[in-house]
Specification:
Eight copies of one chain form a homooctamer.
Chain A: H1 3-14, H2 20-28, E1 32-34, E2 39-41, H3 44-48, E3 52-55, H4 61-73, E4 79-82, H5 86-95, E5 100-102, E6 105-108, E7 118-122, H6 128-141, E8 146-148, H7 163-168, E9 171-176, H8 181-189, E10 194-198, H9 210-217, E11 225-226, H10 232-243
Parallel strand pairs in A: 3-4, 7-8, 7-9, 9-10, 10-11
Antiparallel strand pairs in A: 1-2, 4-6, 5-6
Helix pairs in contact in A: 4-5, 6-10
Chain lengths: 248, 248, 248, 248, 248, 248, 248, 248
């Protein structure tokens, strides 16, 4: 309920179109739909500039399908179903045609294309699933990120060919497990915003991503924006916040 | 040494202006000055779009003064000395006139003013020193952030009056200790990029900022960009990356 | 063995009805039944005002059934079997008819209805199993809690419609994973006792509930009562302690 | 801004007493006073039923005095200044006469006496400062808690003399460091609500209160309400929530 | 190679019965048998007073059987195979007849009975497997421990009937998960040596036994001897060390 | 209140010497003295076979002196004041003459000499203060332990000369920081009970004793009895429990 | 691109053989092959003196086979595929004949034999898989390490027979779980470089190798070189770095 | 007591020069000097190839001086006193002339110069004290390491000028705090042995060196040899082990 709406409502009260009781009731009418098992937030996209996203784990296939249906019932931007298993994806896609599944993410109502340049770099091949989640989410927003895999610091020269593109990127996402040093290197090489995503890939003392997470937070390259472990979706959302609502 | 410079150098070799030996030597001439105790990086500002910053702790007052002098010896953008004690600040200011100290930060060569709107919110009064470091660093870049203190979630209505400004901000920095919940709330209320800074303020189970750090990383508000504990400088740098080099 | 009973026993000794040896033996007769594999505590309900509860994991189906039978053999209040698998539930229900299973909890001898108003709020849909355990346990005590799911802080307006009920509740249970911020918000909005239950739902840096647990303990909202991770049963018991034995 | 106030405001708009613009402004007028360095929340007491409390650490003596003054400027309940040092206490008391300091806590406007019975038990002598903070805070609310020190489980018989009082208490606070086992014992002996406060007292493997905190959260006595380490103030607030606003 | 043996060897050298070279070789002849995959230590029983024990996990069934065979090939005390699965137990028993399996432990060559009184107490039913490992290991040494299950502190009166026996025990083993408070209580009630075994049983904040482990180490009851999580075998060995080699 | 006393009391009731009311009062008369700030437990020595010990930190000098005086007021065994500072020691010694201070421990009423052989080994010189606390506490019990310092595993041959004594010891205490490996070595060399005390000495990755603590708990030498970090007093109490009350 | 190559390239530019544009392109030609899913680093062996190794987990069988094929397409040293499952090994071996699988490691193009003496010691039988990975990797380099299993510190005499060989070894790898004390012992007995590999073998308080890792890092034996948990491959690489490229 | 000495001793017994009793006594004569407070190990240098080093913290100035004197009393290699304060250094130097103090390290009897090339790199200026300890210790062994400070990954080009030297080094020590990424970069650029030393320098999420330690252990550059936090001495010893006893 934004300010113009509030002002209009008050004018209606003043003009007698609306009684005080009705106004109170109206003020209580919140912009979400209560499905019993979920409260679908129809205004999140407007408020946060982010897609409507449904996190799959812990939900039944029916719940997934139902929440997606509710979100698509109102006009709006892209709708995502993330970290799905096959059963959830099948149920959601069959009830809500038009979705596209890539890996563990399903997207409906992709946004129009945008022209900003976003790079996604991974340190190793094992970081690809997280990078894919990020790429697909950015795709739902209309971006067409360039994903460069396997350019970790053990062979730092593999990054050199990307220097020009790094310098011109509007945003860079670095996806790395193990010790996560790639984020520090990239942060030192570009002035663009850098979102660092630690992954749970690794062994020895990687501790399921905790080492990479700490290393990224303690990076000597200033101004890295860190998100949670394996959170490719969150990284995409951080980029979307940075690049704003676009010309449209 | 960017691509045009390399191309020019190669043309000089081709034209005979430069011998191969000289070119090798030239390619080795790296853009830093070696003071023995520090290697001052004269091109970081260009490469990263960030100010030259000297972190005080663990350096002698003389070293602080010397590194700042070296950085100011070349033309460029703002120079910062952070987390200084009085002795370091005095030595650096006396050798390098023109600096302005605010709290534990000293700034030389402030950038021209920029018009983007940056908000800094703190959860409590105890978070102010970290917020100040962020504000002063942003000020060195030319920003004039609006700092709103003490609007933590225990009295969430204190945030309501800021909703319009939050909605129109180009970037928001949330500085919070304890359980850091303010970052989640703000992230749910605005589409702007949100940089979350956990602080070491708190007691009970705050664990010197670890609780706030974890809570911000696990936030249910998508797309928060988290930096390290008490890292107001880093948060400002993250904002600077996001808002880019500016029209100039 | 409470004071009046002790006094009576001593009078019996004084009057010669009981010899000293018999009295010693009597004093040794403890109010539990030793089944070999378990010592069933028949007086816990009186002593603690809590239901007799049997925790399923690690017990054989036969043991579960046997302990429940022993508890039902004496008159008393509700008896619960918690975190059961199908085999345990089947064995216990077939040996002890009259139980009602809801999710992973089975209840026998539900207490008479009570009129206090208890709210259970969850931050997300994934927190529902823990909220259900809490709701069923409260139901065994006679309460009819109002469960409101999925009103986490990413869309804080979903909570606004509950403000009146929050203000009038006799007790509120907040069930939340991820960063657990909902507990802080609710604690800031109501004067009622608030029991905060961290859940293991979440990803990124949720660390199986540890982040939510720490955040609730470090909450800037004063006076939150925190229980262990996923401990919906414990939260219900905390509410039962707070609301007391009731008028009956 | 509660519902009746909102209804009145809307009636004023309807009747023309208030223009829509004025109403919007009014709705924006939030019940806090912005001192610049703090946003004093004048309605917290109503909303949460808790005292207005100012946490000393990290605030200047002037800020402490100023915030207390602002809180006392409006009629209301008790005002507390907690964890003060001498300078803060002196400044606050000299600007705001009528306060009473006990240990590190200062209280103004003590509430009228209440009759509920609250017990505070400590495991050892070293837990006393935390217990004192709890006792003084409860005193500000009008309670007169009975504090029993040094009855830890190494000599569990010291607790036996308190059994009757434990059985009749309206609330019990257990303050314990080391392994915190006293909370489990007390929880097993009484049906009253039990608030468990881990303290940082101890050595060997007490880890500054973490061991006691974990032990209380994992207690086999169901329904313990745990607060943060050394948080005597929080424990008192939890009790205040449980016992409610009182007959007055 | 103990001192008398060394003295004898030196006398043989002196008398010419043994050449220096032979003596060096003899001194090198170490009291173990190298099976390639294991170095079986034939003198551990003499040196440590403990049974020969083979830890099953990570060994093939053939290796288990082979090591047991080697140990039984020399005369000596009891031989144990611990934490076996069915395949390991079957292989070992079929190659080495005469063993007795109880739970996950197999024992060969049980020691003659001993008369010392050892009590094993468990806090809950879920602690029984660990207590059983302890009981069987003590049985291999000749002890006949009295195992009392399920007398945790939530119903501390269940322990009262055991007070006499506790007072007269030569050693007490307390097996407890959750918050492990039973060890503190028992330590406060008896002068006997108390070995505390934390178990991984529990939920909420039990953290796989870490909470119980820390609580036992930080116990306010002085002189508890703590072993590792779920280490019933280790607890039995600690008791065996305490009670010594026996009269025989 | 042991069984014979209870029996006597009941006979008195039976014979009419004692009324039921008096008996109840008598049963309530607990064997401790309530000093207000402490509940002095006069029967702990009998119950636990341990000395009366007062832990200094967190107590005023007056409290230390008062508690010691109360303990000495009744006949009994040794009384200890541990971890004292100079002010506490002076106050306690001046009010209670006859005490002997060694390091941070003061002992009154040393027990008669005992003949059991106790060895204390330290890995390094930095472990000596903890070993001293253990030695002095054992001395209060009447033992005359043999303390061998600085025989850590980096030069394992320094231990060889102690092998005979190790083999004949009635109990061995190993005090070690860093990685605590000495406890494993000693445990592998002797059949005697071994109490392992981790110390906070060390650097690199010693983490204030946590590394040594974990290593001792995970030792491959079976049956080590571990106590908390730097807990020399606890180790002595563990030895006292093991060696029992002695012939007297 | 080493210095001579750069010099040659510049000469070519100078002589006109190469245009500036061509030179820039040439300088960009990086020594890796981009397979899309991986960037195969053809010069790592030269640069690091280590084998080309492909880490199996998280890669498809096809990717494994493809990367190995790419590595074998260029002449060079040994190629390893590590931590493979059967499917990965089969695919890689069938596409790239000539590989030899041992346990979870496959080796192609073994280096010629080298004469340095490398010992691998394990504390227990359960450490063997890690030791095997180390042995096979060293074998790929041409070494023929001597593996001595099961000589942990609980029976330290089992190590004595290895003393001569330890003294003459060019490098020693110690593989140990539990408390990892064997590394300290060996470090105290030899002047050779010692690489310590903690393993996840163990129970009680071994915490999946963390205890052994910390103990090895905090070892009182100076100069131990520690690698990550279970990282037998890394230990072999550390040895390879130490012993250098060999005479060839 | 090495093998030739044992053989000689046995010959003396055989020839009657030595009685069996004398031989036993001789075998017991261990190569250390017992000062009461320390057991000085005169053969460590021979056995481990490392200098005799005395760790200052926790020792009195007199003990430091005495242990150094004992070590110098026998002929041998370098003697070090590390992490000294002024009082310890003064006492040790005044009793043992000829020592040279650098920072917190004092060296006596420096070894003759060696020709191997050792590089020490630090990520930042704050890492210098640790690098200095390493440099001075290597100096005591006769090495003349080249220390290059402040070439962390935020400006990775500062490392480029060192590439040739890195390629030719016999060993490289990398000293880095924060996220420790420099070790990974260097490990990827050189085939030389790399010893990685995490330091406690840093802020944000550096956690006193734990982040750098974990990152180095989880490095994607294979074969890094990691030592404990701030352990410059240990790193030097690791290098000494690698480079061996030298030609002399």
């Amino acid at each position: 309920m934004d300010e113009p709406a509030l002002r209009r409502l008050l004018e209606d009260v003043r003009s007698g179109t609306l009684s005080a009781d009705e106004a109170v009731r109206e003020l209580r009418r919140l912009p979400f739909a209560d499905l019993g098992y979920a409260r679908v937030d129809h205004h999140r996209a407007l408020r946060q500039g982010l897609p409507e996203a449904v996190y799959g784990p812990g939900k039944t296939a029916e719940h997934c399908a139902g929440i997606v249906a509710e979100l698509l019932a109102e006009p709006g931007g892209p709708v995502l179903l993330t970290r799905v298993n096959d059963e959830q994806a099948d149920a959601a896609l069959s009830r809500n045609p038009g979705g596209v599944r890539t890996g563990s993410t399903v997207v409906w109502r992709r946004s129009p294309e945008r022209s900003e340049r976003v790079m996604i770099l991974t340190a190793g091949t094992a970081d690809l699933p997280v990078a894919e989640e990020c790429r697909v989410t950015l795709g739902a927003f209309g971006y067409q990120p360039h994903l460069v895999a396997d350019c970790g610091v053990a062979g730092i020269h593999r990054l050199v060919g990307e220097l020009d593109e790094l310098g011109e990127a509007d945003a860079v996402v670095v996806v790395a497990g193990m010790e996560g040093a790639l984020a520090s290197i990239v942060g030192g090489l570009t002035a663009a915003p850098v979102v660092a995503v630690p992954t749970s890939a690794g062994y020895g003392a990687a501790f399921e991503g905790v080492t990479a997470l700490l290393a990224m937070l303690a990076s000597c390259a200033a101004g890295l924006a860190v998100v949670g472990i394996d959170n490719g979706f969150g990284a995409a959302c951080a980029v979307a916040r940075m690049l704003g609502p676009g010309p449209g």
